[in-house]
């Protein structure tokens, strides 16, 4: 039975995916994640930059990778990009909670299942690389996430996470972002690394990507208005997502949150 948090995530992405694809900054390629402006990378679209970063990590840390699993894969854009950049990948799969996203991804030729990353349908030790781009933060059971990813990875396999991590105090603006983006798993890097270690992973590398985001300064009055309005619109996913995005811009710019890239290897 799908739990309540998973139902909220399903509703969130079922309600917002069409908007992201039509009006969001990701609309040209279907990448439902943030643009990165890293001078050493030359992606035509900055929402593709993270794919180049991930491809480099795979070449460096899992050179013989043949199987990749994208957990929280959206409409499959990352799967397609990595498949084209890494021809050695023979099996590229994805899971998402949103049937709408899965349908779009499948229509583009991706192998995507509607499933939770707390209970992956893949066989044990069946993939070399797992990626989670802005999806791990949605987990209300992060211990299950780590256990399931560890189960499906082969010995020496790697997990790549690109997501927001908490650096400062948990205040009203942090909670506003968490509620708006359905992000219960906004925690510190130390917290995530502890879970990783307990589940049989070692941290290979990690760094903040904040410097490569183009952040918008959010006036104090706007944050006050968002906090005031949110209780009255919390049943409207598109509005709450927008408020969450405004809060996140403020938190990233103030350094309370770090958009973090991390690579883990199975022990």
Give the helices and strands, then pairings:
Elements: H1 4-23, H2 49-61, E1 67-71, H3 77-85, E2 91-96, H4 99-107, E3 111-114, E4 127-133, H5 142-152, E5 153-166, H6 172-180, H7 189-198, E6 201-208, H8 220-233, H9 237-254, E7 257-266
Parallel strand pairs: 1-2, 1-4, 2-3, 4-5
Antiparallel strand pairs: 5-7, 6-7
Structural overview:
The structure is a single chain. The mean pLDDT is 93. Strand 4, helix 5 and strand 5 form a beta-alpha-beta unit. Helix 2 crosses helix 3, helix 6 crosses helix 8 and helix 8 packs antiparallel against helix 9. The protein is of the alpha/beta class. The protein has a single domain, classed as 3-Layer(aba) Sandwich (Rossmann fold). The chain contains nine helices and seven strands.
- Gyration radius from CA atoms, angstroms: 18 Å
Annotated CATH architecture: 3-Layer(aba) Sandwich
Name the CATH class: Alpha Beta
Regions with pLDDT < 50 over 5+ consecutive residues? none
Order of helices and strands: HHEHEHEEHEHHEHHE
Strand content: 15-25%
**CATH H-tier superfamily:** Vaccinia Virus protein VP39
Distance between the termini: 32 Å
Average per-residue pLDDT, rounded, comes to: 93
Outline: globular
The name of the CATH topology is Rossmann fold
Q: Based on helices, strands and strand pairing, what is the structural class?
A: alpha/beta
Strand segment count: 7
> Order of strands across the biggest sheet?
3-2-1-4-5-7-6
* Main pleated sheet: 7 strands, mixed
State the helical fraction.
40-55%
Q: How many domain regions?
A: 1
